[in-house]
Amino acid sequence: MFSTYQLLNEETVLSYVKEKLPELATASHVSVKEIGDGNLNYVYRIKDEGTGQSIILKQAGDTARISDEFKLSPDRNRIETEALTLQGSFVSDLVPTIYFFDEVMNCCAMEDLGEFQIMRQALVEHKMFPQFADHITTFMTETLVRTSDVVMPHKDKKEQLKRFVNPELCEISEDLVFTEPYYNNFNRNEVTPGNEAFVEEHLYQNTELHRHVAKLKYTFLTKSESLIHGDMHTGSIFIKEGETKVIDPEFAFYGPMGYDVGNVVANLIFAWANGVVSQDDSFVDWIEKTLVEVVDQFKEKFVATWKNHAIEPFAVQNEAFVTTYLEDVLKDTAGMAGLEMNRRIVGLAKVKDITILEGEARLRAERLVMTLANQFILNASAYQTGDTYLKALHEVKEHQL
């Protein structure tokens, strides 16, 4: 019945999973619910109501849910499954378990994280997670350093690079992150009424900014540094007290490490801006502390992972090389953070941290984010420690009060 590709729905999913999972075929009552709220895929929770056991089934369609303009290969589901499997070999407690992948239907079944909450929603509710910085920096250093030429035999890395060629999803990032936010002739941009003049001056007419953005875009296009997640925002992280799970690496490809780290930094700053205009000082303090910890713990763990696993002769024999390499990653991190921040304000795919705000609060939050973003892009090499980010946040906040 499922020997050729077809897009599933709540009715056909049940027949499909019973065919694929014998333990569900004999279950007396299996429920199916479509739970996907992302931009690209279809996600279902299938639950055996008798035993209480459940799985998540994810299927890739040939267009994006966010817009039919994006024609996509369903092969991205294979890329996601292989990326999660590889990441799980490094940090099994920080990703969901994969149960199976069906290359015909472009479906994967995985662990149900129903007890977790999407981190973006948790941050919108101003929840705080003291262990998040430790968890996410472990995930990033292990998955990024250990898939790089520093650790992998160069031929093996090149073979792996071929398996993660991801042109269609990379094109989405190239357009939405690196190009469209800086020009007012793209009809997918959406500027909040009241901030048109600010966007015109600081994004559309800022030729010096464009020069730096162009350099970052070509870094993204050409720097095959390690297997990156490619979409590391707080909507791709499940969280609960004491546990963190990174999901949805369908944008994974071999690119610059700083793109992942910068996305984490940027999404913490969205939550920070929300907290600032909402005047929740305790939440703002926690976000600031977490941001500092993310940057500084990433640096510390990066060096440790490098020393524990490096095989490249220069990496092993020249102790100064790790410092040079890490400085470059951190420079990319700041620039990429700025790109993510600007695109979520004016681009097609916005973030709830900001859109939930109303009136002057939203306008101010957007200006805070864009002001910081441009600083990170224009002066990327200046941001090498958590304290440099913290100083920037405080200065922009005071200037705009």
From TrEMBL:
Protein name: S-methyl-5-thioribose kinase
Entry keywords, A to Z: ATP-binding, Kinase, Nucleotide-binding, Transferase
Protein family: Belongs to the methylthioribose kinase family.
EC number: 2.7.1.100
Top-level taxon of the source organism: Bacteria
Domain Aminoglycoside phosphotransferase as annotated: residue spans: 32-271
UniProt entry tagged with the keyword Transferase: yes
Molecular-function annotations in GO: ATP binding; S-methyl-5-thioribose kinase activity
Pfam families on file: APH
Subunit structure: Homodimer.
Gene: mtnK
